[in-house]
What we know:
The protein is α+β, with helices and mostly antiparallel strands. It is built from 14 helices and 13 strands.
Amino acid sequence: xxxxxxxxxxxLTPKTEWPVIAGESTNTVDLFKNYVAPLAAIPAVAxxxxxxxxGFSVPLVGHIRLPIITGITAMVMSFVFALIGxxxxxxxxxxxxxxxxATKNPEQALxxxxxxxxxxxxxxxxxxxxxxxxxxxxxxxxxIYLLYLGLPVLMKAPQEKATxxxxxxxxxxxxxxxxxxxxxxxxxxxxxxxxxxxVTTRTAETSGALGELEKMGKRMEEANKKMDEAKKSGDQxxxxxxxxxxxxxxxxxxxxxxxxxxxxxxxLLPETIGGLKRASIEGEKTAMGEFKIAKAEAxxxxxxxxxxxxxxxxxxxxxMFGTMFAWGMxxxxxxxxxxxxxMGKVNGxxxxxxxxxxxxxxxxSLLVGGRFIVETHGDNVDMATIKTASxxxxxxxxxxxxxxxxxx
Length: 408
Protein backbone atom coordinates (compact mmCIF):
# COMPACT_ATOMS: atom_id res chain seq x y z
CA UNK A 1 0.00 0.00 0.00
CA UNK A 2 1.40 3.35 -1.07
CA UNK A 3 0.36 6.02 1.42
CA UNK A 4 0.22 8.87 -1.09
CA UNK A 5 -1.72 6.91 -3.69
CA UNK A 6 -4.13 5.53 -1.11
CA UNK A 7 -4.78 8.97 0.41
CA UNK A 8 -5.33 10.42 -3.06
CA UNK A 9 -7.62 7.62 -4.21
CA UNK A 10 -9.78 7.38 -1.09
CA UNK A 11 -10.25 11.16 -1.19
CA LEU A 12 -10.84 11.65 -4.90
CA THR A 13 -12.30 8.33 -6.07
CA PRO A 14 -13.77 6.64 -2.98
CA LYS A 15 -16.38 4.63 -4.90
CA THR A 16 -13.71 2.67 -6.73
CA GLU A 17 -11.18 2.62 -3.87
CA TRP A 18 -13.40 1.09 -1.18
CA PRO A 19 -13.78 -2.22 -3.08
CA VAL A 20 -9.98 -2.37 -3.44
CA ILE A 21 -9.58 -1.78 0.30
CA ALA A 22 -12.23 -4.39 1.10
CA GLY A 23 -10.21 -7.03 -0.73
CA GLU A 24 -6.95 -6.25 1.08
CA SER A 25 -5.70 -8.17 4.07
CA THR A 26 -4.10 -5.57 6.33
CA ASN A 27 -3.10 -6.22 9.90
CA THR A 28 -3.63 -3.62 12.60
CA VAL A 29 0.04 -2.86 13.19
CA ASP A 30 0.79 -2.20 9.52
CA LEU A 31 -2.31 -0.04 9.08
CA PHE A 32 -1.39 2.16 12.03
CA LYS A 33 2.32 2.29 11.28
CA ASN A 34 2.14 2.89 7.54
CA TYR A 35 -1.03 4.98 7.23
CA VAL A 36 -2.79 6.18 10.37
CA ALA A 37 0.28 7.44 12.26
CA PRO A 38 1.84 9.48 9.40
CA LEU A 39 -1.44 11.19 8.53
CA ALA A 40 -2.60 11.70 12.13
CA ALA A 41 0.67 13.51 12.76
CA ILE A 42 -0.21 16.24 10.24
CA PRO A 43 -2.86 18.08 12.31
CA ALA A 44 -0.97 17.49 15.55
CA VAL A 45 2.30 18.98 14.27
CA ALA A 46 0.62 21.75 12.26
CA UNK A 47 -1.42 22.80 15.28
CA UNK A 48 1.71 22.95 17.41
CA UNK A 49 3.48 25.13 14.85
CA UNK A 50 0.43 27.36 14.42
CA UNK A 51 -0.25 27.84 18.14
CA UNK A 52 3.24 27.80 19.65
CA UNK A 53 5.56 28.95 16.84
CA UNK A 54 3.51 31.23 14.56
CA GLY A 55 1.05 32.29 17.24
CA PHE A 56 -2.40 33.82 16.99
CA SER A 57 -4.22 37.05 17.80
CA VAL A 58 -6.55 37.54 20.76
CA PRO A 59 -8.74 40.64 21.08
CA LEU A 60 -7.48 43.14 23.68
CA VAL A 61 -4.41 40.98 24.28
CA GLY A 62 -2.59 40.98 20.97
CA HIS A 63 -0.43 38.33 19.32
CA ILE A 64 0.35 35.44 21.64
CA ARG A 65 1.86 31.96 21.51
CA LEU A 66 1.21 28.96 23.67
CA PRO A 67 4.26 28.00 25.77
CA ILE A 68 6.42 25.48 23.92
CA ILE A 69 6.06 22.83 26.64
CA THR A 70 2.28 23.25 26.65
CA GLY A 71 2.22 23.06 22.86
CA ILE A 72 4.34 19.92 22.76
CA THR A 73 2.20 18.27 25.42
CA ALA A 74 -0.99 19.07 23.52
CA MET A 75 0.62 17.89 20.26
CA VAL A 76 1.61 14.52 21.71
CA MET A 77 -1.76 13.99 23.36
CA SER A 78 -3.59 14.99 20.19
CA PHE A 79 -1.56 12.46 18.19
CA VAL A 80 -1.99 9.67 20.71
CA PHE A 81 -5.71 10.31 21.08
CA ALA A 82 -6.09 10.28 17.29
CA LEU A 83 -4.68 6.76 17.21
CA ILE A 84 -6.84 5.64 20.12
CA GLY A 85 -9.86 7.37 18.61
CA UNK A 86 -9.61 5.46 15.33
CA UNK A 87 -9.49 2.18 17.19
CA UNK A 88 -12.41 3.01 19.48
CA UNK A 89 -14.54 4.23 16.58
CA UNK A 90 -13.82 0.98 14.73
CA UNK A 91 -15.14 -0.90 17.78
CA UNK A 92 -18.30 1.22 17.65
CA UNK A 93 -18.77 0.54 13.93
CA UNK A 94 -18.28 -3.18 14.47
CA UNK A 95 -20.59 -3.32 17.48
CA UNK A 96 -23.38 -1.48 15.65
CA UNK A 97 -23.17 -3.71 12.57
CA UNK A 98 -25.91 -6.25 13.52
CA UNK A 99 -28.35 -3.42 14.32
CA UNK A 100 -28.24 -2.31 10.68
CA UNK A 101 -28.12 -5.65 8.93
CA ALA A 102 -24.34 -5.45 8.47
CA THR A 103 -21.72 -8.12 9.14
CA LYS A 104 -19.46 -7.85 12.18
CA ASN A 105 -15.83 -7.79 11.08
CA PRO A 106 -13.26 -6.02 13.31
CA GLU A 107 -10.62 -5.88 10.56
CA GLN A 108 -12.95 -4.26 8.04
CA ALA A 109 -14.36 -1.91 10.71
CA LEU A 110 -10.86 -0.69 11.50
CA UNK A 111 -10.15 -0.04 7.83
CA UNK A 112 -13.36 1.90 7.23
CA UNK A 113 -12.71 4.02 10.35
CA UNK A 114 -9.08 4.71 9.49
CA UNK A 115 -9.54 5.61 5.84
CA UNK A 116 -12.61 7.78 6.51
CA UNK A 117 -10.42 10.09 8.58
CA UNK A 118 -8.13 10.80 5.61
CA UNK A 119 -9.63 14.18 4.48
CA UNK A 120 -9.63 15.53 8.02
CA UNK A 121 -6.02 14.56 8.59
CA UNK A 122 -4.88 16.04 5.29
CA UNK A 123 -6.75 19.28 6.04
CA UNK A 124 -4.90 19.43 9.35
CA UNK A 125 -2.28 21.46 7.52
CA UNK A 126 -4.67 24.43 7.81
CA UNK A 127 -3.89 24.47 11.54
CA UNK A 128 -0.62 26.19 10.64
CA UNK A 129 -2.77 29.32 10.53
CA UNK A 130 -5.31 29.15 13.36
CA UNK A 131 -7.59 31.54 11.48
CA UNK A 132 -7.95 28.92 8.71
CA UNK A 133 -8.32 25.90 10.97
CA UNK A 134 -12.11 25.98 10.51
CA UNK A 135 -11.56 24.75 6.95
CA UNK A 136 -10.60 21.44 8.51
CA UNK A 137 -14.23 21.12 9.62
CA UNK A 138 -15.30 20.96 5.98
CA UNK A 139 -12.79 18.24 5.12
CA UNK A 140 -13.76 16.34 8.25
CA UNK A 141 -17.39 16.39 7.18
CA UNK A 142 -16.37 15.01 3.81
CA UNK A 143 -15.05 12.08 5.82
CA ILE A 144 -18.67 11.37 6.80
CA TYR A 145 -19.43 10.85 3.12
CA LEU A 146 -16.49 8.44 2.84
CA LEU A 147 -17.85 6.52 5.83
CA TYR A 148 -21.28 6.43 4.18
CA LEU A 149 -19.77 4.92 1.03
CA GLY A 150 -17.52 2.50 2.92
CA LEU A 151 -20.00 0.88 5.28
CA PRO A 152 -21.97 -1.00 2.59
CA VAL A 153 -18.77 -2.23 0.94
CA LEU A 154 -16.66 -3.22 3.93
CA MET A 155 -19.34 -3.99 6.54
CA LYS A 156 -21.88 -5.39 4.04
CA ALA A 157 -24.55 -2.98 5.26
CA PRO A 158 -27.72 -2.80 3.14
CA GLN A 159 -27.67 0.41 1.12
CA GLU A 160 -31.07 1.49 2.47
CA LYS A 161 -29.66 1.37 6.01
CA ALA A 162 -26.34 3.04 5.23
CA THR A 163 -27.58 6.53 6.15
CA UNK A 164 -28.84 5.48 9.58
CA UNK A 165 -25.72 3.36 10.19
CA UNK A 166 -23.56 6.37 9.29
CA UNK A 167 -25.58 8.76 11.45
CA UNK A 168 -25.40 6.60 14.58
CA UNK A 169 -21.71 5.88 14.04
CA UNK A 170 -21.05 9.62 13.68
CA UNK A 171 -22.98 10.43 16.86
CA UNK A 172 -20.97 7.87 18.83
CA UNK A 173 -17.76 9.17 17.26
CA UNK A 174 -18.63 12.74 18.26
CA UNK A 175 -19.10 11.64 21.86
CA UNK A 176 -15.65 10.05 21.81
CA UNK A 177 -14.07 13.14 20.25
CA UNK A 178 -15.76 15.42 22.78
CA UNK A 179 -14.13 13.50 25.62
CA UNK A 180 -10.75 13.63 23.92
CA UNK A 181 -10.97 17.31 23.01
CA UNK A 182 -11.98 18.27 26.54
CA UNK A 183 -8.96 16.44 27.94
CA UNK A 184 -6.63 18.07 25.41
CA UNK A 185 -8.18 21.45 26.12
CA UNK A 186 -7.64 21.02 29.84
CA UNK A 187 -3.98 20.23 29.27
CA UNK A 188 -3.59 23.14 26.84
CA UNK A 189 -5.07 25.54 29.34
CA UNK A 190 -7.94 26.56 27.06
CA UNK A 191 -11.15 25.14 25.69
CA UNK A 192 -10.34 23.38 22.44
CA UNK A 193 -13.45 21.27 22.19
CA UNK A 194 -14.71 23.40 19.28
CA UNK A 195 -17.90 22.86 17.39
CA UNK A 196 -18.12 19.16 18.07
CA UNK A 197 -19.22 19.62 21.68
CA UNK A 198 -22.21 21.67 20.54
CA VAL A 199 -23.46 19.54 17.68
CA THR A 200 -26.80 17.74 17.82
CA THR A 201 -26.88 15.43 14.82
CA ARG A 202 -30.19 14.23 13.42
CA THR A 203 -30.60 11.42 10.92
CA ALA A 204 -32.72 13.39 8.47
CA GLU A 205 -30.22 16.24 8.34
CA THR A 206 -27.33 13.83 7.99
CA SER A 207 -29.12 12.32 5.00
CA GLY A 208 -29.39 15.76 3.39
CA ALA A 209 -25.75 16.49 4.07
CA LEU A 210 -24.75 13.17 2.54
CA GLY A 211 -26.60 14.15 -0.62
CA GLU A 212 -24.53 17.32 -0.86
CA LEU A 213 -21.36 15.40 -0.06
CA GLU A 214 -22.15 12.92 -2.83
CA LYS A 215 -22.20 15.81 -5.29
CA MET A 216 -18.81 16.85 -3.94
CA GLY A 217 -17.53 13.33 -4.47
CA LYS A 218 -18.57 13.40 -8.12
CA ARG A 219 -16.80 16.72 -8.65
CA MET A 220 -13.66 15.34 -7.03
CA GLU A 221 -13.76 12.29 -9.28
CA GLU A 222 -13.94 14.60 -12.31
CA ALA A 223 -11.00 16.61 -10.97
CA ASN A 224 -9.05 13.38 -10.45
CA LYS A 225 -9.61 12.38 -14.09
CA LYS A 226 -8.14 15.71 -15.17
CA MET A 227 -5.15 15.12 -12.90
CA ASP A 228 -4.54 11.68 -14.42
CA GLU A 229 -4.80 13.07 -17.97
CA ALA A 230 -2.39 15.90 -17.13
CA LYS A 231 0.01 13.43 -15.53
CA LYS A 232 0.01 11.22 -18.64
CA SER A 233 0.70 14.24 -20.84
CA GLY A 234 3.66 15.25 -18.70
CA ASP A 235 2.34 18.81 -18.44
CA GLN A 236 3.24 19.81 -14.88
CA UNK A 237 1.39 23.11 -15.07
CA UNK A 238 -1.80 21.34 -16.17
CA UNK A 239 -1.35 18.80 -13.38
CA UNK A 240 -0.94 21.58 -10.81
CA UNK A 241 -4.05 23.32 -12.13
CA UNK A 242 -6.02 20.08 -11.88
CA UNK A 243 -4.76 19.61 -8.32
CA UNK A 244 -5.97 23.06 -7.30
CA UNK A 245 -9.33 22.29 -8.90
CA UNK A 246 -9.51 19.16 -6.74
CA UNK A 247 -8.82 21.28 -3.67
CA UNK A 248 -11.52 23.66 -4.82
CA UNK A 249 -13.92 20.73 -5.07
CA UNK A 250 -13.41 20.03 -1.38
CA UNK A 251 -13.54 23.60 -0.13
CA UNK A 252 -15.59 25.36 -2.76
CA UNK A 253 -18.21 22.82 -3.70
CA UNK A 254 -17.34 23.12 -7.39
CA UNK A 255 -18.32 26.77 -7.70
CA UNK A 256 -15.82 29.05 -9.40
CA UNK A 257 -16.22 32.48 -7.87
CA UNK A 258 -14.39 35.70 -7.21
CA UNK A 259 -14.81 37.04 -3.71
CA UNK A 260 -16.26 40.48 -3.14
CA UNK A 261 -13.54 43.12 -3.08
CA UNK A 262 -12.27 43.69 0.45
CA UNK A 263 -12.83 47.43 0.10
CA UNK A 264 -16.48 46.79 -0.69
CA UNK A 265 -16.75 44.77 2.51
CA UNK A 266 -14.96 47.50 4.45
CA UNK A 267 -17.53 50.00 3.19
CA LEU A 268 -20.23 48.05 5.02
CA LEU A 269 -18.61 48.76 8.37
CA PRO A 270 -19.97 52.07 9.74
CA GLU A 271 -17.88 54.77 11.39
CA THR A 272 -19.89 54.62 14.61
CA ILE A 273 -22.12 52.11 16.37
CA GLY A 274 -24.22 53.72 19.05
CA GLY A 275 -21.76 55.59 21.23
CA LEU A 276 -18.78 53.59 20.00
CA LYS A 277 -16.43 55.12 17.44
CA ARG A 278 -14.45 53.12 14.92
CA ALA A 279 -10.88 52.82 16.19
CA SER A 280 -9.45 50.73 13.36
CA ILE A 281 -10.44 49.01 10.11
CA GLU A 282 -8.65 46.56 7.84
CA GLY A 283 -9.29 44.18 4.97
CA GLU A 284 -7.54 41.21 3.40
CA LYS A 285 -7.92 38.56 0.74
CA THR A 286 -6.58 35.00 0.95
CA ALA A 287 -6.48 32.50 -1.93
CA MET A 288 -5.72 28.80 -1.75
CA GLY A 289 -6.10 27.17 -5.15
CA GLU A 290 -9.61 27.92 -6.39
CA PHE A 291 -10.80 28.61 -2.86
CA LYS A 292 -10.79 32.29 -1.91
CA ILE A 293 -11.68 34.27 1.19
CA ALA A 294 -12.04 38.04 1.61
CA LYS A 295 -12.36 39.65 5.00
CA ALA A 296 -12.99 43.08 6.50
CA GLU A 297 -12.74 43.87 10.18
CA ALA A 298 -13.35 46.96 12.30
CA UNK A 299 -12.92 47.67 16.01
CA UNK A 300 -15.09 50.14 17.91
CA UNK A 301 -14.45 51.59 21.37
CA UNK A 302 -15.12 54.43 23.77
CA UNK A 303 -13.28 56.00 26.68
CA UNK A 304 -14.97 53.64 29.17
CA UNK A 305 -13.34 50.52 27.71
CA UNK A 306 -16.51 49.36 25.94
CA UNK A 307 -15.33 47.57 22.80
CA UNK A 308 -16.85 45.76 19.84
CA UNK A 309 -15.14 44.02 16.93
CA UNK A 310 -17.09 43.24 13.74
CA UNK A 311 -15.74 40.90 11.05
CA UNK A 312 -17.27 40.12 7.66
CA UNK A 313 -15.86 37.10 5.84
CA UNK A 314 -16.78 36.25 2.25
CA UNK A 315 -16.27 32.58 1.42
CA UNK A 316 -16.47 33.40 -2.28
CA UNK A 317 -19.72 31.77 -3.30
CA UNK A 318 -18.45 28.43 -2.03
CA UNK A 319 -21.85 26.89 -1.58
CA MET A 320 -20.57 23.62 -0.19
CA PHE A 321 -18.53 25.48 2.38
CA GLY A 322 -21.52 27.57 3.33
CA THR A 323 -23.79 24.55 3.58
CA MET A 324 -21.51 22.41 5.68
CA PHE A 325 -20.19 25.14 7.91
CA ALA A 326 -23.69 26.48 8.43
CA TRP A 327 -25.24 25.86 11.76
CA GLY A 328 -28.24 24.30 10.04
CA MET A 329 -27.13 20.95 11.47
CA UNK A 330 -26.59 22.41 14.92
CA UNK A 331 -28.92 23.37 17.74
CA UNK A 332 -28.07 24.33 21.30
CA UNK A 333 -29.53 26.22 24.24
CA UNK A 334 -27.12 25.99 27.15
CA UNK A 335 -27.04 28.09 30.30
CA UNK A 336 -24.69 28.04 33.29
CA UNK A 337 -24.16 30.21 36.35
CA UNK A 338 -21.66 32.26 34.37
CA UNK A 339 -23.39 32.68 31.02
CA UNK A 340 -25.24 31.09 28.15
CA UNK A 341 -24.68 29.81 24.63
CA UNK A 342 -27.19 29.30 21.83
CA MET A 343 -27.16 27.88 18.31
CA GLY A 344 -30.08 27.97 15.95
CA LYS A 345 -31.61 30.16 13.26
CA VAL A 346 -32.96 33.70 13.17
CA ASN A 347 -35.00 34.68 10.10
CA GLY A 348 -33.70 31.55 8.38
CA UNK A 349 -30.05 32.46 8.99
CA UNK A 350 -27.91 30.09 11.09
CA UNK A 351 -26.71 31.86 14.24
CA UNK A 352 -24.45 31.32 17.22
CA UNK A 353 -24.33 33.50 20.31
CA UNK A 354 -22.41 33.29 23.55
CA UNK A 355 -22.46 35.70 26.49
CA UNK A 356 -20.94 35.99 29.96
CA UNK A 357 -23.50 37.19 32.51
CA UNK A 358 -21.04 39.63 34.05
CA UNK A 359 -20.95 41.43 30.70
CA UNK A 360 -17.21 40.92 30.26
CA UNK A 361 -17.39 39.19 26.89
CA UNK A 362 -19.94 38.10 24.31
CA UNK A 363 -20.16 37.15 20.66
CA UNK A 364 -22.77 36.80 17.97
CA SER A 365 -22.20 35.16 14.58
CA LEU A 366 -24.42 34.31 11.64
CA LEU A 367 -24.28 33.15 8.04
CA VAL A 368 -25.83 35.46 5.43
CA GLY A 369 -26.69 34.40 1.90
CA GLY A 370 -24.90 31.07 2.31
CA ARG A 371 -21.48 32.73 1.95
CA PHE A 372 -20.97 35.73 4.25
CA ILE A 373 -20.04 35.06 7.88
CA VAL A 374 -20.63 38.04 10.16
CA GLU A 375 -18.87 37.71 13.52
CA THR A 376 -19.25 40.27 16.30
CA HIS A 377 -17.29 40.17 19.57
CA GLY A 378 -17.96 42.52 22.44
CA ASP A 379 -16.16 43.38 25.67
CA ASN A 380 -17.89 45.14 28.55
CA VAL A 381 -21.09 45.62 26.53
CA ASP A 382 -24.46 43.87 26.62
CA MET A 383 -25.75 41.42 24.02
CA ALA A 384 -28.18 43.99 22.63
CA THR A 385 -25.22 46.21 21.72
CA ILE A 386 -23.41 43.27 20.14
CA LYS A 387 -26.42 42.35 18.01
CA THR A 388 -26.94 45.98 17.02
CA ALA A 389 -23.31 46.13 15.91
CA SER A 390 -23.76 42.95 13.90
CA UNK A 391 -26.88 44.24 12.16
CA UNK A 392 -25.17 47.55 11.36
CA UNK A 393 -23.35 45.93 8.42
CA UNK A 394 -26.69 45.54 6.64
CA UNK A 395 -27.70 41.91 6.20
CA UNK A 396 -29.90 42.78 3.24
CA UNK A 397 -26.93 44.37 1.46
CA UNK A 398 -24.90 41.20 1.98
CA UNK A 399 -27.82 39.05 0.86
CA UNK A 400 -27.99 41.07 -2.36
CA UNK A 401 -24.34 40.19 -3.07
CA UNK A 402 -24.66 36.42 -2.55
CA UNK A 403 -24.36 35.63 -6.27
CA UNK A 404 -21.69 38.21 -7.00
CA UNK A 405 -18.74 36.69 -8.83
CA UNK A 406 -20.22 33.19 -8.90
CA UNK A 407 -19.76 31.06 -12.01
CA UNK A 408 -21.34 27.64 -12.02
